[in-house]
Amino acid sequence: MDIATRVYNHKWQIDPIVRSLIDTDFYKLLMCQSVFRNSPDTRVEFSLINRSKKVRLADLIDEGELREQLDHIRSLSLSRGESTWLRGNTFYGKRQMFRPDFMEWFENLRLPPYHLEKIDGQYELTFEGSWPEVMLWEIPALAVLMELRGRAVLNRMGRFELQVLYARAMTKLWEKVEHLRRVPNLKIADFGTRRRHSFLWQDWCVQAMQEGLGDRFIGTSNCLIAMRREVEAIGTNAHELPMVYAALAENDAALAKAPYQVLADWHEEHDGNLRIILPDTYGTEGFLKRAPDWLAGWTGIRIDSGDPAAGAETAIQWWKDRGEDPTQKLVIFSDGLDVAQIESLAAQFAGRVRVSFGWGTLLTNDFRGLAEDDALAPFSLVCKAVSANGRPTVKLSDNPEKAMGPSAEIERYKRVFGVGEQERMEVVV
Amino acid sequence: MDIATRVYNHKWQIDPIVRSLIDTDFYKLLMCQSVFRNSPDTRVEFSLINRSKKVRLADLIDEGELREQLDHIRSLSLSRGESTWLRGNTFYGKRQMFRPDFMEWFENLRLPPYHLEKIDGQYELTFEGSWPEVMLWEIPALAVLMELRGRAVLNRMGRFELQVLYARAMTKLWEKVEHLRRVPNLKIADFGTRRRHSFLWQDWCVQAMQEGLGDRFIGTSNCLIAMRREVEAIGTNAHELPMVYAALAENDAALAKAPYQVLADWHEEHDGNLRIILPDTYGTEGFLKRAPDWLAGWTGIRIDSGDPAAGAETAIQWWKDRGEDPTQKLVIFSDGLDVAQIESLAAQFAGRVRVSFGWGTLLTNDFRGLAEDDALAPFSLVCKAVSANGRPTVKLSDNPEKAMGPSAEIERYKRVFGVGEQERMEVVV
């Protein structure tokens, strides 16, 4: 595959960015099955949120092209081969992870309509409908916007500039892989679908990790790539579960219990390496302090905001307090990682806890410094549940820069979950 | 064209390195036509000379593969399209540069046999026969050895290592092109066929120069690439003409005249930009001092050894002494150039003389620093006329490191041409 030539050829034809319903993160499908079972009738609204205001997406991306790409996604349905793979493959050591009733529903699914408007140089892009349907928009919507913004820049470049651009990006990634080779006992996965430079580029990154890291590369969150490249599909659960459960809580007492209810439902469905706690939605410290004992028996914790080393220390201390042996536990780092941080975290926690890394945007979209005005640098774009059954959702996380929701609700959540002062950390990607 | 993939695929099939008799330097064909007219019956021997003894070619390159490649070259004949191009194209502004009798001979040509032996870690590769036939072995023989040595290294690399290798090489070349863009009034040609990394890579380099430099890139010495990419074929004459003429001289007086006889014959055949003096075969200073006045009327001088700035100053002074206006004259630099030297020479001679550059090995084979142990760095390989009608040839040049021939003959030539002390300069490529 010659990426530069493919990209060059994009200039003369419509080339869909997302070509499959499973060109999405594995945890979306796992969560979707949970939601399909537990809350199929919950109505949600998801919305695009560009945290990097200076990137004026509506000035960069043609609305017609964006609609074309989104419409194309609405035309997709699960192919026979994809369905066979989901039904027959072993995920996390388990056969038939996806139940027949869910698969039947998924095989007949088309994604629901979207609502698109230009407002002040940005796109307002929202999706409304039943939770299991709407939630599947998140990853493809992000991938489409990120790639269309990239294409707008690439379209101005000549054929050789493109070749050299990709040459530089490949060189850069391979140097990262060569650094990672020297990290003892590394376990690392690709988590870079949502903010990837492009599908082809993510696919190349996965191959580079396969070739460069061997079995230290444990898989990809991208189902389509996992299927095609025959690597493990990786992922468990995300903030949208506690956010929607919390929004639906009838009062403060129910709200305080909501994050645990999410994991109680998960506990019923999954075991082993799928039992990973994501503790930061409403503050890690309070969450762990008030957690029921059965949660301490789970396999691991994913650290997705705040200072990652501090988060891991908190987790280790919590396991010790609950009589668990941290060396048998797993910490998954997944927040804006790059090589230097991976190296230092691996060194800091070696022998103290099992560690793995979910490497996202700076794996699949580190085009920083490669185009004029850094026009291809990744930025902080998310697509989140903003309401459930008409009630607003709230996320706090361990970094106030990542908080979202109406401010009165944020204050209420902080009170209910006992969140005090938090350290502000810049969000790059 | 994805070079890395093509190279990777080489591993499973025989892939000829030289696929055409015009995959050679344009000046070879011009000189061949001259020789075909003036000395068709002269018997010559050409021999491979590896000036980089530490590169043990016979240890690196399989003899069977080398024979396969050389045999393949002996199977080549001029194709109809190639012949049409040579007959019909305009070269240096002139139609029918190649005369019908020469073309008819060329169309029926197959290259003569070669003699190959392994001696002390090196290949002794020689070609004997009539001058116009044997001389056409020089460029393909060099290209085959250089590329087989490269393939021996590439064969040990994985697919991604290869992709990254070419990514780095592309990045490196493009950075050079970007530097050259900023040189005012640049005129530069590709002279890199003989020691290129590979045909595909030279072809990429030419395209990069076309795209990056526009009409500042004036053409390539490679006829096949000139034909396919529709750029000018560039080149005039080389040391083999005076070397063979000198070897055939019956006595010292005839020897002293031989270099001028070469140019007298050339003067009869060519005019304009093809009248370029190559003065260094037996020392530039003495050559110019004793040159007949009609030579001062020629268009330019090519500087191919010694300190290039000093050589150009000597030429400028010579033109002034002969009453010529240097600003109307052309200096062509062609000895082991790279970007920094091109920049400084262009700056030093701007406005004083017309300048152009023949950029060779460090354009088409700058893989220095890109493989372990620098195993892909270019080295100093040549293929020269070593005898003519049984008499040894001699080359002195303006750098004693480039001198060749039996030492008694070297001393005789130095005496006849009045060459004194010369500055030694390291020969990199």
Automatic annotation (TrEMBL), chains A, B:
GO cellular component, as recorded: cytosol
Gene Ontology annotations of biological process type: NAD+ biosynthetic process via the salvage pathway
Annotated ranges, domain Nicotinate/nicotinamide phosphoribosyltransferase: 187-420
Stretches that traverse the bilayer: none
Pathway: Cofactor biosynthesis; NAD(+) biosynthesis; nicotinate D-ribonucleotide from nicotinate: step 1/1
Domain Nicotinate phosphoribosyltransferase N-terminal: 22-145
Keywords assigned by UniProt, alphabetized: Glycosyltransferase, Ligase, Phosphoprotein, Pyridine nucleotide biosynthesis, Transferase
Enzyme nomenclature, EC number: 6.3.4.21
Record field: catalytic activity: 5-phospho-alpha-D-ribose 1-diphosphate + nicotinate + ATP + H2O = nicotinate beta-D-ribonucleotide + ADP + phosphate + diphosphate
Classification via Pfam families: NAPRTase, NAPRTase_N
Keyword Phosphoprotein recorded: yes
GO MF terms held by the record: glycosyltransferase activity; nicotinate phosphoribosyltransferase activity
List of residues that carry Phosphohistidine: 239
Entry comment on modification after translation: Transiently phosphorylated on a His residue during the reaction cycle. Phosphorylation strongly increases the affinity for substrates and increases the rate of nicotinate D-ribonucleotide production. Dephosphorylation regenerates the low-affinity form of the enzyme, leading to product release.
Superkingdom to which the source organism belongs: Bacteria
UniProt key word Glycosyltransferase: yes
HAMAP family, sorted: NAPRTase (MF_00570)
Family, per entry: Belongs to the NAPRTase family.
Role description: Catalyzes the synthesis of beta-nicotinate D-ribonucleotide from nicotinate and 5-phospho-D-ribose 1-phosphate at the expense of ATP.
Protein name: Nicotinate phosphoribosyltransferase
Gene of this entry: pncB
